[in-house]
User: What shape does this take?
Amino acid sequence: MKSQLQINKLNSFKEKVYSFSFANYPTTSRIHKLQKFSNLNSIFVKRDDELGFGASGSKLRKYLSLIPYLVQNKYQEVIIKGGAYSNNILTASQLLIENNIQPILFLPEIKNENRHGNFLLTSLLVEKNNIHFLNQNDFSSLNLIIDNYCHHKKEKGINVGVILEGANMKEALPGALSLC
Assistant: This one.
């Protein structure tokens, strides 16, 4: 049984989470009881894959709070780091464009120029000159390259933000917690 102190802490935490601005993306999805676990009464699967096309699941939840943060900070461009076939790169690109923010991609060089999967979809959304491929040597200096890019853009009066790989950043946490 939870003590009153634990309940108060939990309620305080919930208030802090829900005090953040959230984007208007779908958050409710079905749950399915798993029938194969007959020795356990209540095992369920939450179907966040049904939240939308392209942007769905835990990535969409992270962007519930991350997109309003980026908009409130008036970023004109946002750098996204990750792999060419990443779900996060595709989701972030889609949601940034919907919010009039230019996605700028820094990706490891791909051996085959044949575009398929997530990278095919991403390349249809993002302007070619906003996709920067880095060879293995340059990718090891990615943070320095991004700092230089941001500095150059700042000199031109362009406000640039950065989304970490997988959108694993504190601004995404409130949205990620919306699953609870």
Observations:
- Residues 57-72 form the longest helix (16 residues).
- The beta strands are 31-33, 44-46, 77-81, 102-108, 131-134, 160-163.
- Residues 138 and 144 are 9 Å apart (CA to CA).
